[in-house]
Design brief:
Elements lengths: L7 E2 H9 L1 H8 L8 H10 L6 E5 L2 E11 L4 E11 L2 E8 L7 H18 L6 E6 L4 E6 L2 H20 L17 H4 L1 H10 L1
Parallel strand pairs: 1-4, 5-6
Antiparallel strand pairs: 2-3, 3-4, 4-5, 6-7
Length: 196
């Protein structure tokens, strides 16, 4: 990793937890392919990708907010930052369904870490993930457990990006929806390894 690339993208944490090989292919090799899932996600984000402030009752929304942290050497963009009753918190937009998706929670927590540093506001206790498939928000408690997992993931991503060593190709359920399947070829790689 070059000195000017010392900061990592917040979204890399999500990619890494989803699949370390996918993270490597995107951020080390610059590989990216579209599929129905990535296109749908891009269309969903079209509204939040325009920086604007919106009022919804007693809630202020700030869309497409650039975040950074010198402490964790992170940067990236939050879909939405909300302020309500004197509290500020991130809202991440995802196309899928509600569930216990640690990769989404790590991304949300990293956004909160950046906000805390930028605003000097103390700990942000809660964030939200809006899942478009269900049209509902899921509250995420930003407790010490998810914070520690986020910090550990930041370091793992930093190591991956600095060494640029390709992780092994391991076929699993997540591979079916991955846009990089045609580049990674995890099932085919596993079959070739068995033949050796």
């Amino acid at each position: 990793m070059k000195a000017e690339e010392d900061h990592i993208l917040i979204s890399a944490l999500n990619q890494f937890d989803y699949c370390s090989r996918r993270c490597y292919l995107i951020y080390c090799e610059g590989q990216f392919l579209q599929n129905e899932h990535t296109v749908e996600g891009s269309i969903l984000h079209a509204r939040t990708d325009i920086p604007v402030e919106v009022r919804r009752g007693d809630t202020r929304q700030f869309r497409s907010v650039w975040l950074y942290s010198e402490k964790y050497r992170l940067h990236g963009r939050a879909d939405v930052i909300e302020e309500k009753d004197g509290k500020i918190y991130p809202v991440e937009i995802k196309k899928g369904r509600r569930g216990d998706w640690k990769n989404d929670q790590l991304q949300l927590c990293a956004q909160a870490l950046c906000l805390e540093e930028m605003l000097g506001c103390g700990e942000i206790e809660t964030g939200y993930i809006y899942y478009a498939a269900t049209g509902r928000r899921q509250e995420v408690k930003l407790d010490s457990r998810i914070r520690q997992q986020t910090i550990q993931t930041i370091e793992k991503v930093r190591q991956l990006l600095s060494k640029c060593e390709k992780p092994p190709s391991i076929y699993g359920p997540r591979c079916r929806g991955c846009s990089l399947y045609p580049v990674c070829l995890p099932r085919e790689t596993a079959k070739l390894i068995k033949l050796q």
